TrEMBL record:
The gene is rbfA. GO terms for biological process: maturation of SSU-rRNA. Keywords: Cytoplasm, Ribosome biogenesis. Belongs to the RbfA family. Gene3D superfamilies: 3.30.300.20. It is found in: Cytoplasm. Monomer. Binds 30S ribosomal subunits, but not 50S ribosomal subunits or 70S ribosomes. This is Ribosome-binding factor A.
């Protein structure tokens, strides 16, 4: 008889757990990495837009005129951001890459301070600038007009 009671007790516990599991909230098909990946991509986009606007409107260094951000790659822990940039190519002269990198290094504290004002983040990422290349003058004009060179 004791064996039969233990069966019913175990069965009751099983049924209770099963009933309780219907009330536990689960993300069907969505894991934690999926939500974090969306936040990561969204934050990269926001950093890209903010840095592009800051370089275009607020930075007054003449060596950085025409420099544009091509992409932002944010680290997994949100502490570092690799910012890829391109410079306008003036006629056929070589772009002064070292001068641009020095100018961006001088502007980094200003950019991080403005990002801290504009974004509600616990920690503003460190910015590392990576030179992507020079943009021909024709492509620069078309990008300002909203056309891409491949659209024709």
């Amino acid at each position: 008889m004791a064996e039969r009671e233990s069966f019913f007790v175990r069965r009751a516990i099983y049924e209770a757990r099963r009933a309780w599991s219907r009330f536990v909230m689960r993300r069907d098909g969505h894991d934690e990495q999926g939500a974090a990946g969306y936040r990561h991509a969204r934050l990269q986009g926001i950093l890209f837009e903010e840095l592009s606007a800051l370089l275009r409107d607020d930075v007054s260094d003449p060596t950085l005129n025409g420099v544009r951000i091509t992409s932002v790659v944010l680290s997994v822990d949100y502490r570092n951001a690799r910012v890829h940039f391109a410079a306008p190519q003036v006629s056929d002269a070589a772009v002064d890459r070292a001068g641009l990198e020095r100018g961006l290094a001088r502007a980094t504290p200003f950019l991080r301070a403005r990002l801290a004002e504009g974004l509600d983040l616990k920690r503003i990422p460190e910015l590392r600038f990576v030179f992507d290349g020079a943009v021909p003058p024709q492509a620069e004009e078309e990008s300002r007009e909203g056309r891409s060179p491949c659209s024709e």
